[in-house]
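Hi! If you just cloned this repository, the fastest way to understand the data is to look at a raw example. We've pasted two of them here, unedited. The first protein comes first, obviously.
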Amino acid sequence: MSNPVFFTPPGTLDGLAPGAVFVLDGPEARHAVTVKRLGVGERLDIADGAGKRLSGTVAAVAPNELTVECSGLSAEPRPEVRLVLVQALAKGDRDELAAETATELGIDAVIPWQAERSIVRWKAERAAKAHAKWQSVVTAAAKQARRAWIPEVRSAVDGAGLQAAVAAADLAVILHEDAVRPLRQALEAWQAARPAGDGADGGCEVLLIVGPEGGISPREVTRLCDAGAVTALLGHHVLRSSTAGPAATVLASDILGRW
């Protein structure tokens, strides 16, 4: 069984070596002590959310502090192809559920999208709070999945903002029930045409675009395709907004060699 994971800010694991002692404090330490009830001698991992992971053993426990003896350090590189979920805002927390599940399945970043048919609206006074909630949900999911990387929740976009993101992406796929080409074919064709070594620095991104409950409007599809997106069919059945993104993440991770 893998070790439980707790997060520390990026940079705090820099310069450590096996045998060093690291002190975890704050909310993560309280969670480890009061919720997980970790004791001296138990194993755990501490990740900085940016790829670095410390494996170690609890050496001492205090109410708000955990002292860990480092037994090993590792650095997990970014995937050659990064997957970004563009998730339309949806009612009933289905958008958050999509981000949470996709994080557990390996998504690298999430973009909240204010689609034309989105019922939920991130108005100015609630936008920052809603964004922080999404980031908290994604962080908790990364912890549950014991990941070394915490996906970034990027700034919310409207139609124009998404068009710009599509234009900047290496591939942008609109998951649409009226599409003719299956998602598998779209990804395989792009993978076959991609130059060898393209994205080796982790800068190659594929956007997976999911609409709201009422679907993506024809006008949005046209504008996104004009910006460079392609449409693809995920399956024979119409999936919920909370299901499509995670399902596409699984398929893309397999086809693109991430799994």
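Ok, and the second one:
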Amino acid sequence: MVAISVLDLVPVVEGEGPRDALLKSTDLIRHAERLGYTRYWVAEHHNMVGIASAATSVVIGQLAAATSTIRVGAGGIMLPNHSPLVIAEQFGTLEALFPGRIDLGLGRAPGTDQLTLRALRRSPMSSDSFPQDVLELQALFAPAGPNQAIRAVPGEGLEVPLWILGSSLFGAQLAAELGLPYSFASHFAPDALMQALAVYRERFKPSEQLATPHAMPGINVVAADTDEEARHLATSLQQRFVGMVRGARGKLQPPIDDIEQYWSPAEKAHVSGMLRYAFIGSPETLKRNLGAFVRETQADEIMITAPIFDHEKRKRSYELAAEVAADLKR
């Protein structure tokens, strides 16, 4: 069996605001818990009007409080934006409140633009110390040593499980060296997926946290009762990626009838490449295509994101995806 999990970017849809998005995410995680999803992650983004998860640890606290069994975490915290001590304190607090249910995925990218990075008071060079910052964070979660001068309270001794996130070989190599689980961002940067998974597995060194490699690719899944409906719903996702290409990131737009009239041939080619691992269709179509993906990647777990404009149809998509995943085998 292949475990399935949720990546929720807490999308703000056209005509609504961040509060609406956050309330919908609270409803969605309860739905995911009932459906048997393994974990539910939200991601740190800044200065984006279409994403409401900037205060990631605060959002995780709300989501964890609304549920009782599903693991909740960050996919991820962009560690160059923070000191390891602050993150250890934040996630130590979450682990103290919700023991055994908190994940901490760590990314090296800033999760924003260079102007906003300066507003965060972080140096553009801070990503260079990412490996050292991960080690410092691990040490802060370990039991405190004698006469230890700097301690994370809460945090020390809680050993919150860390994940390395990435979209290149760098993260794969680091996750392998440290013996940590690895999640690849193939939902928007698919090119190096297979090579990164191979590097991660070949170079993996067992650690106290993890004895064998655990790889979790991220993918887009838009499921509906028919292929036609799923393709219609997926035009919201396609419009979002066209906006990224055009440098015009906004709120999630409602689906449209003819995406061919919306994008240029060049934009279509670019976006289709970025969405190589977008699985769109009915349960029958998804069973065939997702099955092939799992066999090709030998994924231990898949993390699904579903940017669907209508909340009830988004919930339905996750319901259908869970039904399909129940039959997936590596």
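That's it. A detail worth noticing about the second one: The radius of gyration is 19 Å.
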